[in-house]
Write a structure and sequence with these properties.
Largest sheet of chain B: 6 strands, mixed
Order of helices and strands of chain B: EEEEEEEEEEE
Number of helices of chain B: 0
Structural class of chain B: mainly beta
Largest interface: A-B, 22 and 24 residues
Helix content of chain A: under 10%
Number of helices of chain A: 0
Number of strands of chain B: 11
Helix content of chain B: under 10%
Number of strands of chain A: 11
Largest sheet of chain A: 7 strands, mixed
Radius of gyration of chain A: 13 Å
Order of helices and strands of chain A: EEEEEEEEEEE
Oligomer: heterodimer
Strand content of chain A: over 45%
Distance between the termini of chain A: 37 Å
Chain lengths: ~110, ~110
Protein backbone atom coordinates (compact mmCIF):
# COMPACT_ATOMS: atom_id res chain seq x y z
CA UNK A 1 0.00 0.00 0.00
CA UNK A 2 1.30 3.44 -0.86
CA UNK A 3 1.78 5.76 2.10
CA UNK A 4 0.41 9.25 2.63
CA UNK A 5 1.72 11.62 0.00
CA UNK A 6 1.94 15.37 0.25
CA UNK A 7 2.64 17.88 -2.47
CA UNK A 8 4.57 19.98 -2.87
CA UNK A 9 7.38 19.00 -0.49
CA UNK A 10 8.85 22.49 -0.37
CA UNK A 11 7.31 25.87 -1.00
CA UNK A 12 8.56 29.44 -0.75
CA UNK A 13 6.04 32.26 -0.69
CA UNK A 14 6.01 35.93 0.25
CA UNK A 15 3.87 37.68 2.82
CA UNK A 16 0.33 38.35 1.68
CA UNK A 17 0.22 35.51 -0.82
CA UNK A 18 -1.93 32.45 -0.46
CA UNK A 19 -0.96 28.80 -0.70
CA UNK A 20 -2.68 25.46 -1.25
CA UNK A 21 -1.20 22.22 0.02
CA UNK A 22 -2.36 18.79 -1.05
CA UNK A 23 -2.59 15.46 0.74
CA UNK A 24 -3.43 12.03 -0.67
CA UNK A 25 -4.30 9.57 2.11
CA UNK A 26 -3.66 5.87 2.17
CA UNK A 27 -6.15 4.05 -0.02
CA UNK A 28 -9.30 3.24 1.95
CA UNK A 29 -8.66 5.83 4.67
CA UNK A 30 -11.48 8.28 5.13
CA UNK A 31 -10.07 10.55 7.84
CA UNK A 32 -7.46 13.19 7.08
CA UNK A 33 -5.97 15.48 9.71
CA UNK A 34 -3.66 18.44 9.24
CA UNK A 35 -0.99 19.65 11.65
CA UNK A 36 1.43 22.55 11.79
CA UNK A 37 4.89 21.83 13.20
CA UNK A 38 7.25 24.61 14.29
CA UNK A 39 10.31 24.56 16.56
CA UNK A 40 8.62 26.90 19.03
CA UNK A 41 5.11 25.48 19.21
CA UNK A 42 5.69 21.87 18.28
CA UNK A 43 2.95 19.94 16.51
CA UNK A 44 -0.40 21.68 16.58
CA UNK A 45 -3.69 20.31 15.28
CA UNK A 46 -5.30 22.33 12.49
CA UNK A 47 -8.36 20.34 11.46
CA UNK A 48 -9.72 16.91 10.63
CA UNK A 49 -11.90 15.88 7.74
CA UNK A 50 -13.97 12.74 7.45
CA UNK A 51 -16.14 11.90 4.48
CA UNK A 52 -15.81 15.44 3.08
CA UNK A 53 -16.94 17.06 6.34
CA UNK A 54 -14.81 18.96 8.82
CA UNK A 55 -15.17 16.96 12.00
CA UNK A 56 -12.79 18.81 14.29
CA UNK A 57 -10.93 22.09 14.30
CA UNK A 58 -7.93 23.48 16.17
CA UNK A 59 -7.33 27.03 17.36
CA UNK A 60 -6.09 28.64 14.19
CA UNK A 61 -7.35 31.83 12.53
CA UNK A 62 -9.83 31.71 9.66
CA UNK A 63 -6.99 32.23 7.18
CA UNK A 64 -6.41 28.50 7.52
CA UNK A 65 -9.01 26.43 5.76
CA UNK A 66 -9.32 23.02 4.25
CA UNK A 67 -11.52 20.67 2.34
CA UNK A 68 -11.80 17.02 1.47
CA UNK A 69 -12.91 15.53 -1.80
CA UNK A 70 -15.03 12.47 -2.46
CA UNK A 71 -11.88 10.37 -3.04
CA UNK A 72 -10.67 11.41 0.47
CA UNK A 73 -7.88 13.57 -0.91
CA UNK A 74 -7.59 16.78 1.05
CA UNK A 75 -6.29 20.26 0.54
CA UNK A 76 -5.50 23.00 2.98
CA UNK A 77 -5.31 26.65 2.10
CA UNK A 78 -3.64 29.50 3.89
CA UNK A 79 -4.55 32.98 2.75
CA UNK A 80 -2.75 36.27 3.42
CA UNK A 81 0.44 34.52 4.48
CA UNK A 82 2.39 35.85 7.46
CA UNK A 83 6.02 35.23 8.40
CA UNK A 84 4.83 33.15 11.33
CA UNK A 85 3.14 30.70 8.99
CA UNK A 86 6.55 29.30 8.06
CA UNK A 87 6.38 25.72 9.24
CA UNK A 88 6.24 22.06 8.32
CA UNK A 89 2.65 21.16 7.47
CA UNK A 90 1.87 17.52 8.10
CA UNK A 91 -1.07 15.53 6.91
CA UNK A 92 -2.12 12.27 8.55
CA UNK A 93 -4.67 9.72 7.45
CA UNK A 94 -6.49 6.99 9.32
CA UNK A 95 -9.26 4.57 8.55
CA UNK A 96 -11.91 6.27 10.65
CA UNK A 97 -10.17 8.80 12.88
CA UNK A 98 -11.35 7.01 16.00
CA UNK A 99 -9.70 7.18 19.41
CA UNK A 100 -7.18 4.41 19.02
CA UNK A 101 -7.08 4.45 15.23
CA UNK A 102 -3.52 4.54 13.90
CA UNK A 103 -2.65 7.76 12.12
CA UNK A 104 -0.14 7.57 9.30
CA UNK A 105 1.72 10.77 8.62
CA UNK A 106 3.00 12.03 5.31
CA UNK A 107 6.48 13.55 4.94
CA UNK A 108 5.10 17.07 5.18
CA UNK A 109 5.28 20.25 3.14
CA UNK A 110 7.94 22.70 4.26
CA UNK A 111 6.50 26.21 3.78
CA UNK A 112 8.79 29.22 4.01
CA UNK A 113 7.24 32.68 4.02
CA UNK A 114 9.59 35.55 3.16
CA UNK B 1 -6.69 24.18 27.06
CA UNK B 2 -5.20 20.72 27.49
CA UNK B 3 -1.42 20.66 27.50
CA UNK B 4 1.14 17.90 27.48
CA UNK B 5 4.46 18.75 29.08
CA UNK B 6 7.25 16.61 27.73
CA UNK B 7 10.68 16.36 29.36
CA UNK B 8 13.51 16.56 28.81
CA UNK B 9 13.49 18.62 25.62
CA UNK B 10 16.97 17.47 24.61
CA UNK B 11 18.97 14.42 25.54
CA UNK B 12 22.45 13.49 24.37
CA UNK B 13 23.78 10.17 25.63
CA UNK B 14 26.35 7.52 24.82
CA UNK B 15 25.47 4.25 23.17
CA UNK B 16 24.49 1.66 25.76
CA UNK B 17 23.01 4.08 28.29
CA UNK B 18 19.40 3.97 29.48
CA UNK B 19 17.03 6.90 29.35
CA UNK B 20 13.48 7.90 30.25
CA UNK B 21 11.27 10.52 28.62
CA UNK B 22 8.28 11.86 30.50
CA UNK B 23 4.96 13.22 29.33
CA UNK B 24 2.74 14.93 31.93
CA UNK B 25 -0.59 16.69 31.98
CA UNK B 26 -3.21 17.86 34.44
CA UNK B 27 -5.87 16.51 32.07
CA UNK B 28 -7.12 13.00 31.53
CA UNK B 29 -6.68 11.45 28.11
CA UNK B 30 -8.66 8.57 26.66
CA UNK B 31 -5.48 7.23 25.07
CA UNK B 32 -1.89 8.24 24.67
CA UNK B 33 0.45 7.63 21.78
CA UNK B 34 4.19 7.82 21.30
CA UNK B 35 5.72 8.72 17.95
CA UNK B 36 9.24 8.94 16.58
CA UNK B 37 10.12 11.43 13.88
CA UNK B 38 13.28 11.56 11.80
CA UNK B 39 14.47 14.61 9.84
CA UNK B 40 12.53 15.14 6.62
CA UNK B 41 9.84 12.66 7.55
CA UNK B 42 6.53 12.64 9.34
CA UNK B 43 6.09 11.07 12.79
CA UNK B 44 5.73 7.30 12.93
CA UNK B 45 3.52 5.71 15.58
CA UNK B 46 5.40 3.53 18.08
CA UNK B 47 2.64 2.58 20.49
CA UNK B 48 -0.84 3.43 21.77
CA UNK B 49 -1.72 2.95 25.43
CA UNK B 50 -5.32 3.05 26.53
CA UNK B 51 -5.73 1.63 30.03
CA UNK B 52 -4.47 3.39 33.17
CA UNK B 53 -1.40 1.58 34.49
CA UNK B 54 -0.81 -0.14 31.17
CA UNK B 55 2.75 -1.12 30.29
CA UNK B 56 3.79 -2.04 26.75
CA UNK B 57 7.16 -3.24 25.56
CA UNK B 58 8.58 -2.90 22.09
CA UNK B 59 12.02 -4.54 22.05
CA UNK B 60 14.20 -2.15 24.09
CA UNK B 61 11.41 0.42 24.51
CA UNK B 62 9.01 0.31 27.47
CA UNK B 63 5.94 2.54 27.55
CA UNK B 64 3.83 3.19 30.61
CA UNK B 65 0.49 4.97 30.99
CA UNK B 66 -0.15 6.49 34.40
CA UNK B 67 -2.91 5.07 36.59
CA UNK B 68 -4.92 8.28 36.26
CA UNK B 69 -4.31 8.46 32.49
CA UNK B 70 -2.69 11.89 32.86
CA UNK B 71 0.94 10.96 32.29
CA UNK B 72 3.15 8.54 30.45
CA UNK B 73 6.78 7.57 30.16
CA UNK B 74 9.03 6.04 27.55
CA UNK B 75 12.08 4.13 28.74
CA UNK B 76 14.81 3.02 26.37
CA UNK B 77 17.27 0.39 27.52
CA UNK B 78 20.79 0.24 26.08
CA UNK B 79 20.23 3.04 23.58
CA UNK B 80 21.72 2.70 20.12
CA UNK B 81 22.62 5.35 17.51
CA UNK B 82 19.63 4.18 15.49
CA UNK B 83 17.36 5.42 18.30
CA UNK B 84 18.35 9.01 17.48
CA UNK B 85 15.34 11.14 16.59
CA UNK B 86 12.51 13.28 17.87
CA UNK B 87 10.16 11.47 20.25
CA UNK B 88 6.64 12.85 20.59
CA UNK B 89 3.86 11.95 22.96
CA UNK B 90 0.29 12.70 21.98
CA UNK B 91 -2.87 12.43 24.07
CA UNK B 92 -6.38 11.97 22.73
CA UNK B 93 -8.66 14.43 24.47
CA UNK B 94 -11.60 12.75 26.18
CA UNK B 95 -13.73 15.85 25.56
CA UNK B 96 -12.91 16.89 22.02
CA UNK B 97 -11.31 13.85 20.46
CA UNK B 98 -8.41 16.00 19.29
CA UNK B 99 -4.87 14.65 19.40
CA UNK B 100 -2.69 16.96 21.50
CA UNK B 101 1.06 16.68 21.11
CA UNK B 102 3.84 17.34 23.56
CA UNK B 103 6.73 19.56 22.49
CA UNK B 104 8.94 16.58 21.79
CA UNK B 105 12.24 15.21 23.04
CA UNK B 106 15.23 15.33 20.72
CA UNK B 107 17.39 12.30 21.45
CA UNK B 108 20.94 11.94 20.21
CA UNK B 109 22.75 8.67 20.85
CA UNK B 110 26.46 8.90 20.22
CA UNK B 111 28.43 5.79 19.22
Amino acid sequence: KAGVTQTPRYLIKTRGQQVTLSCSPISGHRSVSWYQQTPGQGLQFLFEYFSETQRNKGNFPGRFSGRQFSNSRSEMNVSTLELGDSALYLCASSASGGGTDTQYFGPGTRLTVL
Amino acid sequence: TQLLEQSPQFLSIQEGENLTVYCNSSSVFSSLQWYRQEPGEGPVLLVTVVTGGEVKKLKRLTFQFGDARKDSSLHITAAQPGDTGLYLCAGRSSNTGKLIFGQGTTLQVKP
